[in-house]
Amino acid sequence: MPLLSVNNIEVIYDDVILVLKGLSLEVEEGQIVSVLGANGAGKTTTLKAISGLLKTEEGEVTDGSIIFDGDKINGLEAEDIVKKGIFQVMEGRRVFEDLTVRENLVAAAHTQKCSRSELDDRIDHVYSYFPRLKEREAGLAGYLSGGEQQMLVIGRGMMAKPKLMMLDEPSLGLSPLLVGEIFEIIVKLNKELGTTILLVEQNARMALNIADHGYIMENGKIVLDDTTEKLKNNEDVKQFYLGMT
Ligand code: ATP
């Protein structure tokens, strides 16, 4: 049984706008799975449907089901979905700008009953992945560079110790060097910690290089899915996503 299975879901915003039109995908435990697609295809909506965050935007899953770790999760509150082990790293590096780096990390563990020493261990673990965050731990998160803020949001995700981490466009707006660094960290999280990853990316080349399996999304539906090895050799993927003719 896959860790996550999204079965034929339909999502409607504001009671009228149909955005996901029978979307299905599966994520096996231990895999990195990537969802690619043009702007507006519905990638972010898919992640929000899974994490329960649609509700905050007047969106609703009106058909289909989402099963995680054997349980149906569509309909649950976002906070309960986090407790079940899913964490969504949202697009746009959302940190608490007026809190310090360390306070941002502490706040991310709030859904879990975590002893003081466990909390310190988790923070040290995040710092072992991101030494730059340790150097700036007492500074306000709002003063971090874009790349450092992206590290902090991933660090916040690590604090929740999720079984499934979902990342929405982690490379957005970062220099090529930092993109490489962030992708290395994603692979490390997967290989060292065993965190299953669901990744939404515009940077198709990077995403296909690190993922095991890929889904191509168009207009609210999956139109193609395969192992990334096969997708990299697919003529349409080469032309439309990898810019090769
Ligand atoms: P991008 O790559 O540009 O982030 P995406 O594939 O992630 O795009 P979504 O953000 O999921 O796409 O948006 C899919 C469609 O749903 C778009 O047409 C968008 O305008 C619409 N949409 C998204 N959020 C809302 C909302 N809160 N209310 C109404 N419509 C929305």
Automatic annotation (TrEMBL):
Gene3D superfamilies, sorted: P-loop containing nucleotide triphosphate hydrolases (3.40.50.300)
One of the protein's GO biological processes: L-amino acid transport
Membership in a protein family: Belongs to the ABC transporter superfamily.
CDD domains reported for this sequence: ABC_TM1139_LivF_branched
Single GO molecular function: branched-chain amino acid transmembrane transporter activity
Cross-referenced SUPFAM superfamilies: P-loop containing nucleoside triphosphate hydrolases
PANTHER family cross-referenced by the UniProt entry: ABC TRANSPORTER SUBSTRATE-BINDING PROTEIN, HIGH-AFFINITY BRANCHED-CHAIN AMINO ACID TRANSPORT ATP-BINDING PROTEIN LIVF
Pfam families listed in its UniProt record: ABC_tran
Domain of life: Bacteria
Domain (ABC transporter) ranges: 4-244
Keywords assigned by UniProt, alphabetized: Amino-acid transport, ATP-binding, Nucleotide-binding, Transport
Protein name in UniProt: Branched-chain amino acid ABC transporter ATP-binding protein
